[in-house]
User: Which sequence fits this backbone?
Protein backbone atom coordinates (compact mmCIF):
# COMPACT_ATOMS: atom_id res chain seq x y z
CA UNK A 1 0.00 0.00 0.00
CA UNK A 2 0.97 3.63 -0.43
CA UNK A 3 0.71 5.41 2.91
CA UNK A 4 1.16 9.05 3.91
CA UNK A 5 2.27 9.92 7.43
CA UNK A 6 1.91 13.56 8.52
CA UNK A 7 4.29 14.74 11.24
CA UNK A 8 7.97 13.93 11.78
CA UNK A 9 7.74 13.47 15.54
CA UNK A 10 8.21 10.30 17.59
CA UNK A 11 4.91 8.68 16.61
CA UNK A 12 5.16 9.76 12.97
CA UNK A 13 8.69 8.49 12.45
CA UNK A 14 8.00 5.24 14.33
CA UNK A 15 4.88 4.60 12.24
CA UNK A 16 6.78 5.33 9.04
CA UNK A 17 9.51 2.86 9.99
CA UNK A 18 7.12 0.12 11.13
CA UNK A 19 4.97 0.41 8.00
CA UNK A 20 7.93 0.61 5.60
CA UNK A 21 9.46 -2.51 7.10
CA UNK A 22 6.18 -4.29 6.38
CA UNK A 23 6.68 -3.53 2.71
CA UNK A 24 4.45 -0.47 2.38
CA UNK A 25 5.46 2.57 0.34
CA UNK A 26 5.62 5.36 2.95
CA UNK A 27 5.81 9.11 2.39
CA UNK A 28 6.48 11.15 5.54
CA UNK A 29 5.31 14.77 5.25
CA UNK A 30 6.70 17.42 7.61
CA UNK A 31 5.87 21.13 7.78
CA UNK A 32 9.32 22.22 8.97
CA UNK A 33 12.07 22.59 6.39
CA UNK A 34 14.42 20.92 8.86
CA UNK A 35 12.65 18.53 11.26
CA UNK A 36 13.67 19.00 14.87
CA UNK A 37 12.76 17.67 18.30
CA UNK A 38 10.70 19.81 20.64
CA UNK A 39 11.13 19.63 24.40
CA UNK A 40 13.77 18.52 26.85
CA UNK A 41 13.80 14.99 28.25
CA UNK A 42 11.37 12.11 28.42
CA UNK A 43 11.02 8.81 30.22
CA UNK A 44 10.71 5.62 28.19
CA UNK A 45 8.84 2.87 29.98
CA UNK A 46 9.27 -0.90 29.43
CA UNK A 47 6.24 -0.76 27.11
CA UNK A 48 7.84 1.93 24.94
CA UNK A 49 11.17 0.09 24.98
CA UNK A 50 9.36 -3.02 23.72
CA UNK A 51 8.07 -0.98 20.78
CA UNK A 52 11.58 0.32 20.06
CA UNK A 53 12.86 -3.23 20.28
CA UNK A 54 10.31 -4.25 17.64
CA UNK A 55 11.77 -1.50 15.45
CA UNK A 56 15.31 -2.71 16.15
CA UNK A 57 16.21 0.58 17.85
CA UNK A 58 16.08 -0.12 21.58
CA UNK A 59 19.80 -0.78 22.07
CA UNK A 60 21.12 2.57 20.76
CA UNK A 61 18.51 4.48 22.77
CA UNK A 62 19.31 2.58 25.97
CA UNK A 63 23.04 3.06 25.39
CA UNK A 64 22.65 6.83 25.02
CA UNK A 65 20.05 7.28 27.76
CA UNK A 66 20.08 6.81 31.53
CA UNK A 67 18.65 3.89 33.45
CA UNK A 68 15.82 4.79 35.83
CA UNK A 69 14.83 2.34 38.56
CA UNK A 70 12.24 4.29 40.52
CA UNK A 71 10.04 7.34 40.80
CA UNK A 72 10.61 9.11 44.12
CA UNK A 73 8.18 11.91 45.01
CA UNK A 74 8.32 13.68 48.39
CA UNK A 75 6.89 16.72 50.10
CA UNK A 76 9.15 19.53 51.30
CA UNK A 77 9.62 17.81 54.64
CA UNK A 78 11.02 14.73 52.90
CA UNK A 79 7.95 12.58 53.56
CA UNK A 80 7.42 10.02 50.77
CA UNK A 81 4.29 10.72 48.73
CA UNK A 82 4.93 8.52 45.73
CA UNK A 83 7.42 5.66 45.56
CA UNK A 84 7.16 3.46 42.48
CA UNK A 85 9.81 0.87 41.66
CA UNK A 86 10.14 -0.99 38.39
CA UNK A 87 11.39 -4.03 40.34
CA UNK A 88 7.92 -4.35 41.86
CA UNK A 89 6.78 -5.32 38.36
CA UNK A 90 9.78 -7.44 37.35
CA UNK A 91 13.15 -7.74 39.11
CA UNK A 92 15.09 -6.79 35.98
CA UNK A 93 12.77 -4.02 34.77
CA UNK A 94 13.78 -0.38 34.33
CA UNK A 95 12.87 2.79 32.49
CA UNK A 96 15.19 4.95 30.40
CA UNK A 97 15.47 8.72 30.68
CA UNK A 98 16.54 10.15 27.35
CA UNK A 99 17.12 13.53 25.72
CA UNK A 100 14.39 14.11 23.14
CA UNK A 101 17.03 14.94 20.55
CA UNK A 102 18.64 11.54 21.13
CA UNK A 103 15.43 9.61 20.51
CA UNK A 104 14.62 11.87 17.56
CA UNK A 105 18.06 11.25 16.06
CA UNK A 106 17.88 7.46 16.39
CA UNK A 107 14.47 7.37 14.67
CA UNK A 108 15.42 9.91 12.02
CA UNK A 109 18.63 8.11 11.06
CA UNK A 110 16.64 4.92 10.41
CA UNK A 111 14.17 6.49 7.95
CA UNK A 112 16.25 6.47 4.74
CA UNK A 113 17.65 2.92 5.19
CA UNK A 114 14.05 1.69 5.69
CA UNK A 115 12.98 3.28 2.41
CA UNK A 116 10.84 6.05 3.89
CA UNK A 117 10.52 9.09 1.59
CA UNK A 118 10.76 12.26 3.72
CA UNK A 119 9.30 15.45 2.24
CA UNK A 120 10.04 18.53 4.34
CA UNK A 121 8.66 22.06 4.14
CA UNK A 122 5.25 20.58 3.35
CA UNK A 123 2.46 21.93 5.54
CA UNK A 124 -0.62 19.82 4.91
CA UNK A 125 -3.84 21.80 5.24
CA UNK A 126 -6.45 19.43 3.79
CA UNK A 127 -7.21 16.72 1.28
CA UNK A 128 -9.44 15.76 -1.60
CA UNK A 129 -10.93 12.51 -2.97
CA UNK A 130 -11.51 10.76 0.40
CA UNK A 131 -11.73 7.30 -1.23
CA UNK A 132 -8.20 7.69 -2.62
CA UNK A 133 -6.94 10.65 -0.61
CA UNK A 134 -4.66 13.28 -2.06
CA UNK A 135 -3.06 15.64 0.47
CA UNK A 136 -3.10 19.37 -0.22
CA UNK A 137 -0.34 21.56 1.21
CA UNK A 138 -0.33 25.25 2.10
CA UNK A 139 1.32 26.14 -1.22
CA UNK A 140 -1.43 24.42 -3.20
CA UNK A 141 0.67 21.36 -3.98
CA UNK A 142 -0.90 17.89 -4.15
CA UNK A 143 0.52 14.67 -2.71
CA UNK A 144 -0.88 11.24 -3.41
CA UNK A 145 -3.19 9.46 -3.89
CA UNK A 146 -2.71 7.26 -0.85
CA UNK A 147 -4.40 4.14 0.46
CA UNK A 148 -4.09 5.36 4.06
CA UNK A 149 -3.29 8.71 5.67
CA UNK A 150 -1.80 8.58 9.19
CA UNK A 151 -1.97 11.87 11.08
CA UNK A 152 0.71 12.22 13.76
CA UNK A 153 1.07 16.00 14.08
CA UNK A 154 0.84 16.14 17.87
CA UNK A 155 -1.59 17.26 20.55
CA UNK A 156 -2.05 20.63 18.84
CA UNK A 157 -2.96 18.91 15.57
CA UNK A 158 -4.33 21.21 12.88
CA UNK A 159 -5.80 18.28 10.96
CA UNK A 160 -7.61 16.46 13.77
CA UNK A 161 -10.78 18.51 13.28
CA UNK A 162 -10.95 17.49 9.62
CA UNK A 163 -10.96 13.82 10.63
CA UNK A 164 -13.13 14.18 13.74
CA UNK A 165 -15.09 17.47 13.51
CA UNK A 166 -16.37 17.17 17.09
CA UNK A 167 -12.95 16.54 18.62
CA UNK A 168 -12.05 18.46 21.76
CA UNK A 169 -8.50 19.31 22.82
CA UNK A 170 -8.50 22.01 25.52
CA UNK A 171 -5.15 23.16 26.89
CA UNK A 172 -4.52 22.15 30.50
CA UNK A 173 -4.40 25.21 32.77
CA UNK A 174 -1.07 23.97 34.17
CA UNK A 175 2.15 23.29 32.30
CA UNK A 176 5.87 23.35 33.03
CA UNK A 177 9.16 24.91 32.06
CA UNK A 178 12.09 22.60 31.33
CA UNK A 179 15.85 22.96 31.09
CA UNK A 180 18.79 20.58 30.86
CA UNK A 181 21.79 20.66 33.17
CA UNK A 182 24.98 18.70 33.87
CA UNK A 183 25.14 16.11 36.64
CA UNK A 184 28.75 14.85 36.42
CA UNK A 185 28.68 13.43 39.96
CA UNK A 186 25.53 11.43 39.26
CA UNK A 187 23.66 12.87 42.24
CA UNK A 188 20.31 12.24 40.55
CA UNK A 189 21.23 8.98 38.82
CA UNK A 190 18.78 6.09 38.82
CA UNK A 191 15.53 7.88 39.67
CA UNK A 192 12.98 10.40 38.53
CA UNK A 193 12.99 12.58 41.63
CA UNK A 194 10.20 15.04 42.44
CA UNK A 195 9.38 17.51 45.20
CA UNK A 196 5.91 18.86 45.98
CA UNK A 197 4.71 21.90 47.86
CA UNK A 198 1.06 20.90 48.14
CA UNK A 199 -0.06 20.76 44.47
CA UNK A 200 0.71 24.38 43.62
CA UNK A 201 4.43 23.72 43.17
CA UNK A 202 6.01 20.62 41.69
CA UNK A 203 9.57 20.30 40.46
CA UNK A 204 11.61 17.34 39.41
CA UNK A 205 14.86 16.01 37.97
CA UNK A 206 15.10 13.25 35.38
CA UNK A 207 18.47 11.76 34.33
CA UNK A 208 18.64 11.65 30.51
CA UNK A 209 22.08 10.23 29.72
CA UNK A 210 24.74 11.97 27.69
CA UNK A 211 22.48 13.70 25.20
CA UNK A 212 23.27 14.44 21.54
CA UNK A 213 26.81 15.72 22.23
CA UNK A 214 27.75 12.70 24.34
CA UNK A 215 30.30 14.52 26.50
CA UNK A 216 28.70 14.63 29.99
CA UNK A 217 25.80 13.13 31.93
CA UNK A 218 22.74 15.34 31.77
CA UNK A 219 19.49 15.75 33.67
CA UNK A 220 16.25 17.49 32.75
CA UNK A 221 14.85 19.80 35.40
CA UNK A 222 11.20 20.84 35.33
CA UNK A 223 9.19 23.39 37.27
CA UNK A 224 5.39 23.22 37.19
CA UNK A 225 3.32 26.38 36.95
CA UNK A 226 0.05 27.67 35.48
CA UNK A 227 0.18 28.41 31.76
CA UNK A 228 -1.11 31.92 32.50
CA UNK A 229 2.07 32.63 34.49
CA UNK A 230 4.64 31.38 31.99
CA UNK A 231 5.28 34.82 30.51
CA UNK A 232 5.83 36.14 34.03
CA UNK A 233 8.41 33.41 34.66
CA UNK A 234 10.23 34.10 31.40
CA UNK A 235 10.53 37.81 32.13
CA UNK A 236 10.88 37.60 35.91
CA UNK A 237 13.72 37.68 38.41
CA UNK A 238 15.50 34.37 37.91
CA UNK A 239 17.75 34.88 40.93
CA UNK A 240 14.71 35.27 43.19
CA UNK A 241 13.14 32.17 41.68
CA UNK A 242 16.37 30.20 42.10
CA UNK A 243 16.58 31.18 45.77
CA UNK A 244 13.00 30.05 46.31
CA UNK A 245 13.54 26.72 44.54
CA UNK A 246 16.79 26.06 46.39
CA UNK A 247 15.15 26.77 49.75
CA UNK A 248 12.46 24.23 48.87
CA UNK A 249 14.93 21.61 47.59
CA UNK A 250 18.54 22.18 48.76
CA UNK A 251 19.77 19.00 47.03
CA UNK A 252 18.96 20.58 43.66
CA UNK A 253 21.27 23.58 44.26
CA UNK A 254 24.05 22.35 41.86
CA UNK A 255 21.44 21.99 39.11
CA UNK A 256 19.73 25.31 39.78
CA UNK A 257 23.06 27.16 39.77
CA UNK A 258 23.55 26.30 36.08
CA UNK A 259 20.48 28.25 34.94
CA UNK A 260 21.78 31.72 34.14
CA UNK A 261 18.71 33.17 32.43
CA UNK A 262 15.08 32.26 31.70
CA UNK A 263 16.03 31.75 28.05
CA UNK A 264 17.53 28.35 28.87
CA UNK A 265 14.04 27.08 29.71
CA UNK A 266 11.54 25.76 27.19
CA UNK A 267 7.81 25.88 27.75
CA UNK A 268 5.64 22.78 27.82
CA UNK A 269 1.86 22.91 27.63
CA UNK A 270 -0.46 19.93 27.43
CA UNK A 271 -3.86 19.15 25.99
CA UNK A 272 -6.62 16.79 27.01
CA UNK A 273 -7.34 15.33 23.57
CA UNK A 274 -10.76 13.74 23.10
CA UNK A 275 -11.55 13.10 19.43
CA UNK A 276 -14.30 10.55 20.10
CA UNK A 277 -12.81 8.12 17.59
CA UNK A 278 -9.41 8.03 15.96
CA UNK A 279 -10.38 7.27 12.37
CA UNK A 280 -12.64 8.26 9.54
CA UNK A 281 -12.46 6.05 6.47
CA UNK A 282 -8.87 6.04 5.24
CA UNK A 283 -7.73 8.67 7.75
CA UNK A 284 -6.27 7.74 11.13
CA UNK A 285 -5.01 9.74 14.11
CA UNK A 286 -2.16 8.34 16.21
CA UNK A 287 0.06 9.53 19.04
CA UNK A 288 -0.79 12.78 20.80
CA UNK A 289 -3.05 13.77 17.90
CA UNK A 290 -5.31 10.91 19.02
CA UNK A 291 -4.87 10.76 22.79
CA UNK A 292 -2.70 13.59 24.13
CA UNK A 293 -2.90 14.03 27.87
CA UNK A 294 -0.99 15.49 30.80
CA UNK A 295 2.49 14.09 31.55
CA UNK A 296 1.63 12.82 35.04
CA UNK A 297 2.12 9.16 34.08
CA UNK A 298 5.03 9.76 31.70
CA UNK A 299 3.37 7.81 28.89
CA UNK A 300 3.13 10.18 25.91
CA UNK A 301 6.06 9.00 23.79
CA UNK A 302 5.53 5.40 24.88
CA UNK A 303 1.92 5.32 23.71
CA UNK A 304 2.93 6.89 20.40
CA UNK A 305 5.60 4.24 19.82
CA UNK A 306 3.13 1.48 20.64
CA UNK A 307 0.53 3.03 18.31
CA UNK A 308 3.04 2.87 15.48
CA UNK A 309 4.15 -0.73 15.92
CA UNK A 310 0.64 -2.05 16.55
CA UNK A 311 -0.70 -0.26 13.46
CA UNK A 312 1.82 -2.02 11.26
CA UNK A 313 0.92 -5.34 12.92
CA UNK A 314 -2.82 -4.98 12.38
CA UNK A 315 -3.03 -3.23 9.00
CA UNK A 316 -4.44 -5.34 6.14
CA UNK A 317 -5.51 -4.57 2.54
CA UNK A 318 -9.00 -4.07 3.95
CA UNK A 319 -7.90 -0.67 5.17
CA UNK A 320 -11.06 0.75 6.73
CA UNK A 321 -11.92 -2.50 8.49
CA UNK A 322 -8.43 -3.11 9.88
CA UNK A 323 -8.12 0.52 11.02
CA UNK A 324 -11.39 0.23 12.95
CA UNK A 325 -10.15 -2.94 14.65
CA UNK A 326 -6.82 -1.28 15.40
CA UNK A 327 -8.38 1.73 17.07
CA UNK A 328 -10.69 -0.42 19.20
CA UNK A 329 -7.67 -2.31 20.55
CA UNK A 330 -5.52 0.79 21.05
CA UNK A 331 -8.26 2.82 22.73
CA UNK A 332 -8.63 0.13 25.38
CA UNK A 333 -4.99 0.80 26.25
CA UNK A 334 -4.47 4.52 25.64
CA UNK A 335 -7.94 5.41 26.92
CA UNK A 336 -7.19 3.77 30.23
CA UNK A 337 -4.07 5.92 30.69
CA UNK A 338 -5.96 9.01 29.61
CA UNK A 339 -8.56 8.32 32.29
CA UNK A 340 -5.98 7.75 35.03
CA UNK A 341 -3.96 10.81 34.03
CA UNK A 342 -7.08 12.98 33.93
CA UNK A 343 -7.87 11.85 37.47
CA UNK A 344 -4.32 12.31 38.78
CA UNK A 345 -3.50 15.70 37.28
CA UNK A 346 -5.35 17.95 39.77
CA UNK A 347 -3.77 16.01 42.64
CA UNK A 348 -0.32 17.21 41.53
CA UNK A 349 -1.03 20.46 39.67
CA UNK A 350 -3.72 22.66 41.18
CA UNK A 351 -4.33 25.46 43.65
CA UNK A 352 -5.99 24.95 47.01
CA UNK A 353 -5.82 22.19 49.58
CA UNK A 354 -8.22 19.50 48.34
CA UNK A 355 -6.03 17.99 45.59
CA UNK A 356 -2.93 17.42 47.71
CA UNK A 357 -5.05 16.28 50.66
CA UNK A 358 -6.65 13.55 48.53
CA UNK A 359 -3.27 12.66 47.01
CA UNK A 360 -1.53 12.29 50.36
CA UNK A 361 -4.48 10.41 51.85
CA UNK A 362 -4.49 7.89 49.00
CA UNK A 363 -0.86 7.44 47.99
CA UNK A 364 1.06 7.46 51.26
CA UNK A 365 -0.97 4.91 53.25
CA UNK A 366 -2.25 3.22 50.10
CA UNK A 367 1.25 2.20 49.06
CA UNK A 368 1.39 -0.09 52.08
CA UNK A 369 -1.73 -2.07 51.14
CA UNK A 370 -1.20 -5.64 49.89
CA UNK A 371 -0.49 -5.65 46.16
CA UNK A 372 -0.59 -1.84 45.91
CA UNK A 373 3.06 -1.50 44.87
CA UNK A 374 2.60 -4.12 42.17
CA UNK A 375 -0.47 -2.35 40.77
CA UNK A 376 1.38 0.99 40.83
CA UNK A 377 4.32 -0.57 39.00
CA UNK A 378 1.96 -2.03 36.39
CA UNK A 379 0.61 1.45 35.71
CA UNK A 380 4.10 3.01 35.70
CA UNK A 381 5.51 0.55 33.17
CA UNK A 382 2.76 1.25 30.66
CA UNK A 383 1.74 -2.40 30.56
CA UNK A 384 -1.72 -2.01 32.10
CA UNK A 385 -4.12 -2.86 29.28
CA UNK A 386 -7.67 -4.07 28.79
CA UNK A 387 -7.35 -6.82 26.22
CA UNK A 388 -4.51 -8.72 24.62
CA UNK A 389 -1.07 -7.22 24.08
CA UNK A 390 0.36 -8.23 20.68
CA UNK A 391 3.28 -10.62 21.08
CA UNK A 392 5.73 -8.23 19.42
CA UNK A 393 4.96 -5.58 22.07
CA UNK A 394 5.30 -7.73 25.16
CA UNK A 395 8.20 -6.44 27.30
Assistant:
Amino acid sequence: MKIAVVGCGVAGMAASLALARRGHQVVLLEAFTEPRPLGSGLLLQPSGLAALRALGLADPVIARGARVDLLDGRDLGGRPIMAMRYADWRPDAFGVGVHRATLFGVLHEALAPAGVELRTGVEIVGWESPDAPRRIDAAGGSHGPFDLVVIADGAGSKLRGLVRPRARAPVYPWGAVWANARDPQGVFAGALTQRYDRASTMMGVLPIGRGPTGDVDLVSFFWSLPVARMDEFMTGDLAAWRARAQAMWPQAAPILAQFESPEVFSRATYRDVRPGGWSNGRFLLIGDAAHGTSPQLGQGANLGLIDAVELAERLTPQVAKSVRGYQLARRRHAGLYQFISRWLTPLFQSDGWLGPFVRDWIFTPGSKAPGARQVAALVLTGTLRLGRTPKVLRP
